[in-house]
Automatic annotation (TrEMBL):
InterPro entries: Glyas_Bleomycin-R_OHBP_Dase (IPR029068), Glyoxalase-like_dom (IPR025870). SUPFAM superfamilies: Glyoxalase/Bleomycin resistance protein/Dihydroxybiphenyl dioxygenase. Pfam families: Glyoxalase_3. Residues 6-191 form the Glyoxalase-like domain. It comes from Nitratireductor thuwali. It comes from the Bacteria. PANTHER family: BLL2707 PROTEIN, GLYOXALASE-LIKE DOMAIN-CONTAINING PROTEIN. This is Glyoxalase-like domain-containing protein.
Length: 292
């Protein structure tokens, strides 16, 4: 079977309004706020290839606590991540699937399932104000014994009859999540986990990174010094795998550079990437990679 595609990246934030300001300043079009039925909410950034970023806040602590106590893995792992790393970060890598129930059975057999499948619905509103009901089924995976980041597959149970055309047009020219960067003290072990999660293969590159291949990109895993050398990002060592960066595709790096210079946002220009360090409302390194 071919590997699944990247679906989205979950970015815990302290407040959605702060995330909206930051993402807008970076040149993204941000969708209207949406609330989950279990105490969290998001303000998403969608891309034309179907991938997206999900800034996620806890908007009802009481409901979130009840959901976690009741076995909701999504809320429980979000809380564990915030307890370990604070209110801002990059907590979950999400792949698209057509059969989350089958994924869950596979994760249980592989010993990487942290809990039950989650099925839920929430309202969605497009940029023009048209509303619809979105339904999802999630199957979770996590390295055994690691309370930090986690992963899940996401199955859409009904298509959304809303127009996202305005939401996928960004002043910075971003078109897709292309690569997800992960740091780990033991990249080989982390590579085996992500390959098992994705049902894919991993391979070691000449530059020291491990690649886990996906249908529309890759997960790249490396020690902190390797990620610093290749991408110019600085991260602390992590005993377990921790997502830290997102490489976004764009047609021309002049567009994100112009936005950042206009807004006065610091960035680093390497040979191949524009790199923006995390800030409140933006829990991960964001990198722009030119791909005409």
């Amino acid at each position: 079977m071919p590997p699944p595609p990247i679906d989205h990246c979950v970015l815990p934030v302290a407040r959605l309004d702060e995330a909206r300001r930051r993402m807008s300043a970076l040149g993204f079009s941000v969708a209207p706020d949406a609330a989950h039925p279990f105490g969290t909410g998001n303000a998403c950034v969608f891309f034309s290839n179907g991938t997206y970023l999900e800034p996620l806040a806890r908007i009802d602590d009481g409901r979130a606590f009840e959901a976690a106590a009741g076995g909701n893995v999504f809320v429980g792992r979000d809380g564990a991540f915030r307890a370990r790393y604070g209110q801002e970060g990059f907590s979950a890598i999400v792949l698209a699937t057509d059969d989350a129930l089958s994924d869950h059975r596979r994760f249980v057999e592989q010993g990487i399932s942290p809990g039950a499948v989650l099925e839920f619905s929430r309202p969605f509103t497009d940029a023009g104000g048209k509303a619809a009901q979105a339904s999802f089924r999630l199957a979770f995976a996590a390295p055994p014994g690691w309370p930090g980041s986690f992963c899940f597959t996401c199955q859409r149970l009904n298509p959304l009859p809303v127009d996202r055309s305005e939401l996928v047009r960004h002043a910075n020219g971003a078109t897709a999540v292309g690569k997800i960067l992960v740091t780990a003290a033991d990249p080989q072990s982390a590579g085996r986990f992500f390959a098992a999660f994705a049902g894919s293969q991993s391979s070691e590159r000449a530059d020291g990174l491990l690649d886990v291949y996906l249908a529309n990109g890759s997960i790249q895993i490396g020690a902190p010094e390797t990620l610093r050398e290749i991408y110019g990002i600085t991260v602390e060592p992590s005993p377990g795998p921790r997502p830290v960066g997102i490489v976004l595709r764009c047609g021309d790096q002049a567009r994100p550079r112009a936005v950042l210079e206009r807004e006065g946002i610091p960035f680093e220009q390497t040979r191949d990437h524009i790199c923006i360090a995390p800030a409140p409302g933006q829990g991960a390194y964001l990198l722009f990679e030119e791909q005409p």
